[in-house]
Every structure is written in structure tokens, then in C-alpha cells.
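Field notebook, page 471. I keep forgetting to write these up properly, so this time I am using the form the group agreed on. The chain and the ligand, flavin-adenine dinucleotide, are recorded exactly as supplied. Prediction of the bound pose follows.
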Amino acid sequence: MAMPQQNASTPDLLALLAREFGADLLVDEAALAARSRDESGLVRLPAAVLLARSEAQVVRLVALANEHQFAVIPRGAGTGLAGGCLSPLGGVVLDLTAMSRILCIDTQSLTATVEPGVITGDLRAAVKAVGLFYPPDPASLSTSTIGGNAATNAGGPACVKYGTTRDYVLGIRAVLPTGELVRAGVNTRKGVVGYDLTRLIVGSEGTLGVITELTLKLIPHPRASACVAAVFPDLNAAMRAIIAVMTRGHLPSAMEFLDARCLKLVGDLLPFAVEGEHSALVLMEVDGDPDQVLREAEGIAAICRELGASNILPPAVDEEGREAIWKVRRSVSTRIHEACAVYLPEDIAVPIGHIADMVAALPEVEERHGMTIFAFGHAGDGNIHLNLTAQDEALRPRVEAAAVDCVRLALTLGGTISGEHGIGLAKRGLLPLEIEPVSLRVQRGLKALLDPNNVLNPGKIFPPEGAEAVL
Ligand SMILES: Cc1cc2nc3c(=O)[nH]c(=O)nc-3n(C[C@H](O)[C@H](O)[C@H](O)COP(=O)(O)OP(=O)(O)OC[C@H]3O[C@@H](n4cnc5c(N)ncnc54)[C@H](O)[C@@H]3O)c2cc1C
């Protein structure tokens, strides 16, 4: 598919955009630099930024992009890990963070209607204040936006029980790549009329539409939660316990694990010393009514004990106790990042029965490439965050080669290249490893149908035409 011919940096075009959008069009160095990165480590400088304040501005920008052939790149908070919001063609970044109103929380229909720039944590807090729950909980929730979460179909620890962002988006308003405004989906909890454009645009990483409003499903807020932390002699034992918990009738609202390397990095945050070279930590949380929650947490702790846990913390039910345990889990990626010069985050997912196989194969990958892998993640849904690292920038090619081996391994085990972070720019070369040619043709065809001029976030998800044959 052809790329937009003209980038947005020509003086005439910038002047036209400035006339259209006035002070909301940003071209100063600081504004461009601030939107030239996300959390992937990639850097691409845009020609201009539109800090959109209304849906009408979004419609106008996309219409102009079609008329003048420049790229428009939607952007939320820029916490993405795949370079999805970066502008490889000197296009216009469409920053949606100023469209950040919670328009309505309907306590009778249990829905919320929001603009895309609302911070996820702010929405969760606002609905909690009226007894309601918005479950999606990416670890970035204090900074990422609902629009970005929807565009990447973000997940988090709560996925195992509650599902991903897509499961909570009932309907959207979106500006299609042609500049037309579309209302897709429903305000109701069910709806089966026509093709499901909502679920197509959600998760499309800003390539099939700019989401300008979302109607979200809410549920009653659980009245209590309890957290169990258990240390196992090795990851295999930890995974046996995870599977036993699920097959014996429990459905925790989080099931997380840390491998031995991660555990060493955050061991100082634990209230006990971890012994053994290969120990693994499992965190499980349950929610519901206070009595039931405590009973369930004790039942889970008993299963962990039976399956060989060497250390189990008494179930934490108060906010402070739970927070202390979660701090251990949340500190891992920051500490890995701080400890390693080269840091490549992969987020493969495998069927849960194969997590231990996946992790067991990692030492061989490390040996082959001379680098180090830290593994932690969402055990309940098989989503393993593999942090591929090295201590010297010169070793980056080895780390990248190891990443390809890891995704191949995940695919061999029946898994997927990305459970959460998406493909964006960073992983588009890997797409043909997972998506077969027929599916790739259909997906490219959908993009071409909706975006005939290829102006909306071009160059993302799909490898450059012809590159399929290389891999
Ligand atoms: C510390 C940390 C922890 C993280 N933890 C998780 C996690 O647990 N789970 C998880 O899934 N991800 C996680 N992420 C990744 C990231 O936070 C998510 O992908 C998040 O959903 C991105 O939201 P954002 O607002 O930052 O979007 P951005 O990074 O700005 O954009 C992401 C993508 O969405 C598109 N986009 C943004 N807004 C819109 C819109 N309104 N309409 C159309 N397209 C749009 C962009 O074009 C881009 O392709 C984490 C990242 C960090 C740095």
C-alpha cells in the first residue's frame, strides 16, 4: 500500500494547518520532541502536533490529510511499548490528551461515557466513588489514557477474571481514516446488529479510526479483596500450583508470577528472605464479599502449601497490606530497566499449560546469544513479560536475535507474539511469523478499504509490502 507522498513539513502545508487550528497546532521544538517518543525506546520526530480539543478538529485534520496526503498519527499518553504513536513519516501527531472529560457516569445503566484522553486510573477512581468498577488495569493505569487502552486493547493482572479493555467497550464514536464520523456499537449490554465495527476499531492501534468518545461497561465494585503471596522452590512448582488453583474451582482476580532473577531484584521489598537459587514468587488476589474472600484466600494458601510453597504470607485483606505485596510486582520492570543498559520488553503469551515449558527453554536462548532474560507476568492468562537484557549497547543485536528466538518458541508452543503491547512499529517485522498469508491479505484489504489514501497511522502493524517473504 502506497505511503502518503507528501510529509507535513512543507511550509505551505504547515501554514495551512496553522490557519485551520491556530494555537492548537504546535510546531515548537519542545512540543515535537515530547511527542517523538513513547516507552518503546524508538524516536521519530513529527512535523507538527495538533493538540485536539474537539471531535470537529479531528474530523477536519483527517479530511485535510486525505486532501493533502500527509500522515496523521493518533496519540494518547505515549506509554505504548511498540512505537504505535510515533510518526515515521514526518506527519502530524494527533494528541488526544486534552479531550479528557468524563461525560457521564450512569449509575442506573452501569455505563460511563468518556472522551479518549481520560486517564484510566482517574476513571477507575471516579466510578469507584459511586460503587462501580471499571476492571481493566494495565500497570500504566496512572498515566495511560482510555483511548490508548482501547486502541491497544490493553490488559493487566485483572484480565484472568475480568477480560481486557475490549470487553468493556460497548460503543464508540470514531473518525474514520476518510474523515467521516462513525458511531459504532451500542449503549446496551448486548447488541448484535450488523458487523461489529467497535471490536474492529478497538485494538487496531490507531490504524482504522481515531476514537473520539467511548461508552464503557461498568460492574458493581467488589466489596473486598485479599492477596496471597507464596514462594515456590522453582517455577515449575509455582505453575503447578497456579493450575491447581484454577482447576479446583477458584477464579482469582489476579495471578502473577516472578522468576528467580526478578525475585533477586526486588527481594528487599519482601517481608522475608528468599532462599534457593531457583525460587519463584506467585501473587494471587481474590475479590468479592468479605467472608467469601477470606475463605477463598485461605483455600488458595492451602493449595500452595500442599504443592510445595516454601513460604506463604498470611492473606492480606487491608489496603496497606495488599499494596505492600503489589509494590513488589510493580517494581520489577523499573528495576530491570535501571539495572540493564539494553532492555527489550517482549510480551508473548502461551497456553497456561505451557508457561513452565516456555520459561524452561529460556536458558538455552540466553546461552546461544550471550544475554540475560528476566521473566515475570500474568500466569493466569499465560502472558509472560520477557525482558531481554544486556549490559552493553554493543550487544543489542544479540538481544534482538534472542527476541526473535523467543517469539518463535512461543509460537511453537501454541502462543502469540504479543498478549498486550501490540505490534506498532517495533514488532511489525515479526507479524508474518504468526499471521498466515490469507489472513494477512484480508487484514491488509480491510486497511485499504477503510483508509484508501493510507493516511491514518501508516506503516504500523504490517511489515513493508514484500517483506513477508523475507521472514
Ligand atoms: C510501565 C508500563 C506498564 C505497562 N503495563 C501495561 C499493561 O499492564 N498492559 C498493557 O496492555 N499495556 C501496558 N503498557 C503499555 C501501554 O501503557 C498501553 O499500551 C496503553 O494502552 C497505551 O496507552 P496510551 O494512552 O499511552 O497510548 P499511546 O502510547 O499514546 O498510543 C498507543 C497506540 O494507541 C493509538 N491511540 C492512542 N489514542 C488513540 C485514540 N484515541 N484513537 C485511536 N488510536 C489511538 C496510538 O496511535 C498507538 O498506536 C505499559 C507501559 C508502561 C510504560
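OBSERVATIONS:
- The first strand starts at residue 25 and ends at 26.
- The chain is about 35% helix and 20% strand.
FOLLOW-UP: compare against the apo run.
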